[in-house]
Specification:
The chain has one domain. It has 7 helices and no strands. With 157 residues, it is mostly helical.
Length: 157
């Protein structure tokens, strides 16, 4: 059965569906941050479960095809090794899922934190957009905005 599924869900197909599938979550975060859909679906564990299921499927698929996961640790040896790993589609798609999941998690945190400090969704728009595209810059911009609403600088919150 997994062979039939793997014939349809190639890494390229998964990549396309991931990129299309994550957009509604971000639109809900940006446009409807106080809706029940955002609260119960987007900001819940649901997207992480979906990403985890896809990640697990790919790991099983790559394991069956003989992928050497130990070679992934070469990324710590230098930029040349990371560049070499990025040329491998198996590594690249797992890296991409990791990137999408972390950025969506950070976007969800920003929305929940905005609600906690009663920050306007309009002020959160640019940080959320930046978090989608370039995660750390969006989080940093949100942190700067948050300082004025929380009326304190907290490095641990």
């Amino acid at each position: 059965m997994i062979d039939q599924i793997s014939q349809f869900f190639t890494t390229e197909m998964i990549y396309i569906w991931l990129n299309i599938g994550v957009i509604p979550f971000w639109l809900v975060l940006i446009v409807f941050p106080q809706s029940n859909i955002c609260k119960y679906i987007v900001s819940s564990i649901f997207p992480i479960l979906v990403f985890s299921a896809i990640y697990t499927y790919l790991i099983v698929l790559f394991f069956k095809s003989g992928y050497n996961f130990i070679d992934n640790f070469d990324l710590y040896k230098g930029l040349a090794n990371l560049n070499e790993l990025m040329s491998n589609n198996s590594f690249l798609i797992t890296f991409w899922i990791h990137f999408l999941a972390i950025n969506l998690f950070c976007g969800s945190w920003i929305v929940r934190d905005c609600q906690k400090f009663q920050i306007s969704k309009y002020l959160a728009f640019v940080p959320l957009l930046l978090t989608y595209f370039v995660g750390p810059l969006g989080i940093f911009l949100y942190w700067l905005i948050r300082i004025f609403f929380a009326k304190r600088i907290s490095l641990f919150d």
